[in-house]
Amino acid sequence: MEKSKETVIKIFKALSDQTRLRIYLFLVQGELCVCELMNILNMEQSRISHSLRILKEAGLVVNHREGKWIIYAVNAEIENHKIIQTLKDELKLSKQDLEKFNKCKKENTREKFRCN
Q: Counting C-beta atoms within 10 Å of the first and last residue's C-beta, which end of the chain has fewer, N or C?
């Protein structure tokens, strides 16, 4: 199978889950650590970490360390892929999710919680 087809299949598989899709859409808004996603989504760390691992394996997200935190972000190398552009144009966070994201950033959740 062609590499581009494999990439598309990985992307669709990774984003076929509602939680992973929401996480990806949050990361389109900006970088987040696991504890911030836990706070926004009101989910356990294990579920968030599992979802992030799948998104990372699909090449959709990358991570880097900032002190004690591991920060996740949209992979800039795949951001220009036509499918990703279409998703970003067509799928947006709900108003409620966007409010949660903004509240998390405003309250500096990362400093209040410890990610492990």
A: N
Helices 34-41 and 95-106 pack at an angle, to 10 degrees, of: 130
**Long-range contacts for 83-91 (Cβ within 8 Å, ≥24 apart)?**
83/8, 83/11, 84/11, 84/60, 87/15, 88/28, 91/21, 91/25
pTM: 0.79
Q: Do the beta carbons of residue 61 and residue 29 sit within 8 Å? A: no
Number of domains in the chain: 1
- Structure confidence by residue, pLDDT tens digits, 60-96: 999 999 888 899 999 988 766 666 667 766 667 778 8
In CATH, what number is assigned to the domain containing residue 31? 1.10.10.10
